Amino acid sequence: MKASDLHLPAVAAGACSTTGVDPADVNRLLTLRLILPFLGLIVLNSLDRVNVGFAALRMNAELGFSPATYGFGVGLFFAGYMVAQVPSMWLLQRYGMRRWMCGVVLSWGLVATATAFVQDATSFFALRFALGLAEAGFAPGVTWCCARWVPQRFRGGAIGLTMVAIPLSVVIGGPLSGWLMEIRNPLGLPGWRFMILAEGLPTVLLGVALWWWVVDSPEQATWLTPAQQRWLADTLRVEARGRSEPHATESQLQPSSQRMWQALRPLLGSTLFWGCALVWFSLLTGAYGLMYWLPLVIKQASGQGALAIGWLSALPWVGVAAGMLLNPRHSDRSGERHLHIAVPALVAALALVAAAFAPHGALALALLVAAGLGLGAAQGTFWTLPTSALSPAALPMGIALVNMAGNLGGLLGPSAIGALRQATGSYQWPVLAVAAVMGLGAVVVLAMRPSDDRRP
């Protein structure tokens, strides 16, 4: 991949001067009508996925779950997620963004709501697996939609903004989940059950509402003027042609399910693909380690109640959100991607190591905030690499497979943390293991850096 691949092609850049369209105006409309709704949906997506971490404060004791049982159940989500990832992306290609998004959001909302009524380990395992099936493809689908709608010059900021939803869901969801667990609810349910129910139902309602909001392509976006639609379509077409094989026809630039499968074979032989997959695995191992175990770590260290733990758990995710907002935009301005991923990932790994040996809780929490800042900065910039380098035909399959490999960190990470915690009685070794995986990801990004981008 050349450094020039990461910039808007000159032909597309010149289009605005002949059409009178201001690219910044188009970007603002895309942010308002596409990116911000995506952000809201990902907040709910993440909340419905990880609120079990707060439910565990009481659910584990009520249902008799050991740390290993809980960690295995959490990890089963990712087994379902990976099984259905590629089929979900195929459905997106086959039926379009509107029908696909409504179906995915409704499905995960119903399963998340049903989790409020688990009775034992078997039902917990089954619903976590089903939630993974329902949510599969949503995150890579959003990334693909950003690549199909947002020009490269704005893409880092756009994808970074959608990813802010993940830490935002914890910053909001931590205190909210703690509050919902402690209030006297009108249904008389145990607090953790009411919390899951109250956070799942809004997703169901929004899944229905999306039918009247989402459109399948920029040409159908009535909130863009005809001139803006033409400029955006032309810009994206020129960028797609720049990533395609020489002499590709116009029809060959358009993704289809058949071309997606044809792209699989060369994709598996691509060093770029495998490097991206390994890096995303390392970053999600760190992210899901924080998501699912941080409330329990804080409980062991502080002995606080659910509401206080919710507030304390939110602090590292403030750092994650700041990293996701600031670093991708700086990367967009500079045009550099690799160092904007590798350096923050390394900072996050070192901060986790320091946190594992911190002598008291306040310092450890400050180091976790620093780790969150680095983690968010790396995650927020990561998707600019595959979306800028893979060909249009390979892009949907590439995004799905990279995300599958990354979410292997979600499948293995929580289970490994639970097993290490049960074997050692401490969270120190699990934290060190997560830091080592993230450090490996930083090294891989540096190895992927093109030689002509390196400075003496």
From TrEMBL:
Location(s) in or outside the cell: Membrane
Name of the protein in its database record: MFS transporter
Cross-referenced Pfam families: MFS_1
Transmembrane portions of the chain: 30-47, 67-88, 100-119, 125-147, 159-180, 192-214, 267-294, 306-326, 338-357, 363-385, 397-417, 429-448
UniProt xrefs under SUPFAM superfamilies: MFS general substrate transporter (SSF103473)
Cited Gene3D superfamilies: MFS general substrate transporter like domains
Keyword Membrane on entry: yes
Domain Major facilitator superfamily (MFS) profile: 34-453
